[in-house]
Protein 1
Amino acid sequence: MNRLDLRNGKVEMVHGSGGRAMGQLIRELFAAAFRNEWLDQGNDQAQFSLPPGRVVMATDSHVIAPLFFPGGDIGSLSVHGTINDVAMAGARPCYLAAGFILEEGFPLADLQRIVESMAAASRAAGVPIVTGDTKVVERGKGDGVFITTTGVGVMPPGVELSGDRARPGDRILLSGNIGDHGVTILSLRESLGFETEIGSDSQALHTLVAAMVEAVPEIRCLRDPTRGGLANTLNELAQQSGVGMQLLEREIPVREPVRAACEFLGLDPLYVANEGKLIAICPVEQAERLLATMRAHPQGRDAAIIGTVVEDVQCFVQMETLFGGNRMVDWLNGEQLPRIC
Amino acid sequence: MNRLDLRNGKVEMVHGSGGRAMGQLIRELFAAAFRNEWLDQGNDQAQFSLPPGRVVMATDSHVIAPLFFPGGDIGSLSVHGTINDVAMAGARPCYLAAGFILEEGFPLADLQRIVESMAAASRAAGVPIVTGDTKVVERGKGDGVFITTTGVGVMPPGVELSGDRARPGDRILLSGNIGDHGVTILSLRESLGFETEIGSDSQALHTLVAAMVEAVPEIRCLRDPTRGGLANTLNELAQQSGVGMQLLEREIPVREPVRAACEFLGLDPLYVANEGKLIAICPVEQAERLLATMRAHPQGRDAAIIGTVVEDVQCFVQMETLFGGNRMVDWLNGEQLPRIC
């Protein structure tokens, strides 16, 4: 059997058949890139030990278009996204599983580039991809490649975070500037060229989270403002905790090129997706310590306290604007940016 | 906000936006069907305890076409498939995650039917769906619905199974008749009508596995013959263990209507996918006890010892035919049935 033609070859239906060709694709492309002791087990599942503690599990299907973008690609994004979902519980992500849905005709060279990017992201994060699955659908029944990653992790003792724990008086912290990911993708799709000065912020935040929960185990909730952006994620948390929120626009960091691109595109950066930022809510007494901890980490250098949790039976999120007025920051209504992750 | 129109509504791009509409879809359709304490946590991940022991993780993307078939649908299949992948390690499946990729325009009524079928399969198996994700792609970029399920489970103490543990002299057992799933799907696709007397064998095999590993902890390997069928799965195991296999055709159970349909369709039942059968390999000394244990379980009533592991550096799988000849049972070459799971 000839080796897979990774230069000019394409995904064929037979690569999803369970037979010889699928075995070859897994061996020469996936296993070659992800290589680790668990995949070497060669079974339809992986076995591993977990440290004692409550287990956390998260799953995310990735359908981003385009597949490649400044700052990453669907491969690295699928690793970062799921690591972050596990980490937002306060947990340490330990293992990943990956399911691929490939479209017939997709270039193997692109698939290899994506898989190698996943492997690099997984190695950099120290979270191995230990099991996986590959399916192929006919041309026109998919869109190149979709990747579903699932992560498991373990909670450090004494940490308990949940979206329903915010209390009036708590402070709301943001780890850095918003809008980069969404603006990059939209600019690329519309061939606007902003992406030459902006890139996705896609990154794995678990080491930042580990530092935060170690320094301030009293943190109430963590969440990453992905689809729907900061505005939508804060509304989710407000609703879940049965509280309101009062934000300060001047404290919310937005980089200048992102602000300019948003103005040009008619987007509100509050609603634009991020893939490497987090929101933290903690009691007022620990807010300064948490802020200092975040700023001491490279991923939290631009962290800021952006607002306060308030009593509000209507669970409204409001914001004092740059000009001193007050505006409602409502849920995302309708569709701002499809297929952003 | 009006309730979701589950009768005439369709999936829209906005259902994947992360905003209000997605929240509604999750609440009124997914959470309503899956309802459990973990989903009620309302976070982007689930937290749970696992019993002590080695952890097993498996993931499977499901792209079957058509979505509904006699004996199940993509929803029940996606629960059974992943439960079985976890169980084939000898493990007890504990929790499932589910990622949905929906195509714009897909009828919400069909989605609800699928989700309720998943919920029923999960409840029947006692393995809850504790976390999930929903994405939407444009019309023509998907195919109705794809579901990726990931399962975690725990190994009972003292059990160690792997595809590389088969040894010459071991016996090969099969839990029941083969070919039903693949023949059902193909007949349905080609509108041949065989599916009126045949249905998919899709079922969760974890209670059968639990009985087997309890009675015979010496089992070497378990695997479910899905894509590529019995022939391909046995070749995988032979290769992984570095052994040959000698099968007896007369011992391999194939139901009469399946045999007839295979003849009509030009299919070899050995290569046709199953979704509710397993292969077990165990030392000869335990083979009769294992067979009796399997036959005492409703899912193993038709179990049989179908062959013997032999020494063979070429790792060939061979079979004594009904007529006393000997034939090679090679790997699946090419594509027999696309999108069977």
Protein 2
Amino acid sequence: MRHKPKAVVLDVIETCFAIDPLDEKLSELGLPAGSLKVWFPRVLRDAFALQVTGTYKGFAEIATGALASLLAENKIEPNAEKMEGVIESFAALPIHPDVKEGIQLLRAAGIRIAALTNGSATTTRKMFAGAGLEDAIEKFISIEEVKQWKPAAAVYLHAAKQLDLAPADLALVAAHDWDIDGAVKAGLTTAYIARRQPRGSSAMSPPDVTAHTLPEAARALLALPG
Amino acid sequence: MRHKPKAVVLDVIETCFAIDPLDEKLSELGLPAGSLKVWFPRVLRDAFALQVTGTYKGFAEIATGALASLLAENKIEPNAEKMEGVIESFAALPIHPDVKEGIQLLRAAGIRIAALTNGSATTTRKMFAGAGLEDAIEKFISIEEVKQWKPAAAVYLHAAKQLDLAPADLALVAAHDWDIDGAVKAGLTTAYIARRQPRGSSAMSPPDVTAHTLPEAARALLALPG
């Protein structure tokens, strides 16, 4: 039986920050509209494939490699500077409008909050700072510290250790079913935010809580037995 | 230094059989045109994510889960029968027109040929039988036998074992950079066929041979020093 967590780790991209503006950035490279929906799953596919073979590479390297490959597929000559611009624009993604209230709800209830990202800690800090929420986040935890990608158990266990908590006292909030699946298997409590995807894949472990916004997820986590 | 392989394992989907007709199958479910490019990387992303957490699920289960999720995202009620129809239509994908000649070239040079698929062995046999090439394939090797997905090393090593060969005497031919990467790391010789993707991601190990068709890949593999 899951209990109320002592801390929450928030996934960052898509969960807290809307990724949609990146589609325009890709269009500026000459890619057809909607290319974000093609590129982003490929970035994750490649990252997870490398995790399967035991090779760690960071977000920027994998994302750039997949982007160059997609550009070539569309007969567009890769341009290093423009590709770098796309990666850098992650730092300027807009926060989902409900995130601030969700963070306030958790903090008011005495729940500690950290970010847990497959991206870089530096970019993540910039993103929350840009949204005026830097001070609400106790730690910006990145996979860079363990050189493994979520959904590897090592990442969630590292987050729990960084917060000095047992995995069962920590909850992951994420908008990705594969992230929820990994956290469930690592022993965390989980809350799924159905942003773009109303439901996760049935091949993945179900979350403890399903919500549409961070406040809704926060309320459900706070309602778990102490 | 790589040497001429004693046997070749052919990746199946996209490498030997064109996947494009599936886009129409997805449109018949009500999904927008181009959805194949969104769905298929997600299927692989999910499979690799599950591989990362040490959970084996077969192709049909993962593909169906990702499809139901994509349908929900498009506000289309999932229909079990229609989704099954999509999965079944993999068995009827058309063979790339160059595959037969490539297989003949390899066979004429005394090279043994097997198929190595992340799909099911039964479906793969049906696909090659439909193309009149069943007898040219010595073994239909599926990840089902090791309950791990490519690019896990165990799969390529299993294939080498099934063919009673050292990994260095076996070559993988594939149209996916992550498949090449896994095979390189497992010690196989590799040939990349640039079908949809002119170049693989720079985050992945480069192949020994790059070609546009199977005959071209075959000739390059046969030209390696004995």
